[in-house]
Amino acid sequence: MNIGTASELSQLPVKTIRYYEEIGLVDPGRTGNGYRDFSETDVERLKFLQRARSLGFSIEQCRELLSLYEDRNRASADVKAITRTKIQEIDRKIDELNSLKRVLTTLMEACHGDDRPDCPIIDDLAGAFSGNTRKSGSDQH
């Protein structure tokens, strides 16, 4: 089947499929005139990759998972280890996002949100960006 059909069946954009081919995740056959010729197995690999990527696995993790998927002698412990690593990455990201949320919430609560120009959010952003080197008018003497 052609790349358009493989795209529809796998729910992956053609550009993504071409990229996966370029990095060796899929290797479709070629017709006599050089067009890609995707088999059912290729489409199954693409579906597998689509689902793994949608769960947040990196390209390298997908490469490992795909290798395990195709290895009927695999140890499920290997698959579980990759998944455990992914969960740890997600937990770290959640912690980072919660920390960012706390900082932003504190700044938002400190802001009056009225017509005055004074804004603790802007002050904090400017201080973080410039290294808190801004001085008020009375400090410049």
What general form does the structure show?
A: elongated
> What's the count of strands?
2
User: Helix share of residues?
Assistant: 55-70%
In CATH, what is the class of the domain at 1-74? Answer: Mainly Alpha
Strand order of the largest sheet: 1-2
- Evaluate the radius of gyration: 25 Å
Strand content: under 5%
Helical stretch count? 6
Mean model confidence by pLDDT = 91
Specify the CATH architecture of the domain at 1-74: Orthogonal Bundle
H and E string: HHEEHHHH
Molecular structure report:
This protein has a domain at 1-74: Multidrug-efflux Transporter Regulator, Chain: A, Domain 2. The protein is 64% helix and 3% strand. The chain is built from six helices and two strands. It has a two-stranded antiparallel sheet. A hairpin with a 5-residue loop joins strand 1 and strand 2. Residues 132-141 have low confidence and may be disordered.
Write the topology of this structure.
Layout (H helix, E strand, L loop, with lengths): L2 H8 L3 H9 L6 E2 L5 E2 L2 H15 L4 H12 L5 H35 L9 H11 L11
Antiparallel strand pairs: 1-2
Summarize the structure.
The protein has helices at residues 3-10, 14-22, 40-54, 59-70, 76-110, 120-130; strands at residues 29-30, 36-37. With 141 residues, it is mainly α.
